[in-house]
User: What shape does this take?
Amino acid sequence: MPPGAARPSLWQRLWRPADPVMVDAGAGGELLVARVRLLLTGILLVIPATNVLLDPRIEENYVGLGVTLLALALALVLFHLVKRDVFRPWLPFLTSAMDVTLVSLALASFLVLGAPHTAVNSKVLFEVYFLAIFGTSLRYDARVCVLTGALAILEYGAIVAWAATHWRLNDPVFAPFPYGMFSWNAQGGRLVILAAAGVLSTTIVLRTQRLRHLSTSDRLTGLFNRGYFEARLAAELSRARRSGQPLSLVVVDVDHFKRFNDQHGHPAGDVALRTIGTLLRHAVRRSDIVARWGGEEFVLVFPETEAEATYEKLEQIRRAVAQAPIRLPRQQGTGTLTISAGIAAWPRDAAGIEELLAAADARLFAAKAAGRDRVVLGSVPAGTLLASS
Assistant: This one.
């Protein structure tokens, strides 16, 4: 977050869409959860299968076996989807809801079998809710944590309400109460503990988001820093190779920035960099990457974008920067600056990261040599491209 910027409220931090940093982390977390889910369901399958073999007359054993087999089948499907890099923003919501609902389904099955005390006083199945809720923290999305915790409370609350309204749970007919007598105080305590688990997992994610943001952001502009940019560029280039989609890289430099600093002072230079950084960030898509490369240089990556479309976008940005008033500190009024940019495209201009950066940087130097305040695509300056289009 740039200095002086208003800190978002808790509500804004909870419900704003996850930023690309956390989406990447969440994708890795989703794969980890998928592996753990598959391992746990495989292990848990042994219990009902053994019970059915030892005592095939008890209906509860078959219900447990059926629910565990369903969970294992879903775990296999989700594992293969995530392993194949089939990650979508809605997937964490779906898988987290599925984990909670499977626990609720297992508990509700005892209501169908006429064993309500097992449903509301289980000492084993109820605890699985906590695995599902705390697993959401690995998705790095606070919204998933909140919704999963709320879903667990609603589903378990519905199970308790159904049992209490359809059976006289403390009737002597259920004696000797192998799972314990029914108590509203105990059930209320369980619901409070589920809520606490949801709050704790949400807090963990919000704290992680804050620390991750600090480690990947440039303090002055709030954009991504160079280290994170290099990692994201490598990931996007790898994705482009797998999909065969184009990718464009842009290097941007602020024209005559040293002269602006000397004339107005370094605080004015900081304001200028923040202003230009904000313009860059707001002008691109959420899937695009904008970072401060160092000093007065910025870099941008446009996944799945041809160089010509990137050129048109940079021309719009260049004009917007030239027209943007930069508010100078100490009541000095406003000033203006311009930018120059060089564009390189994969796979047309380079095969690897270093070559791509070198090509974009060379075109930036060409733009500056041609008079600045222009975008260069290929070996000719922007004015030539505009005249031929």
About this structure: Confidence is low (pLDDT under 50) at residues 1-6, 380-389.
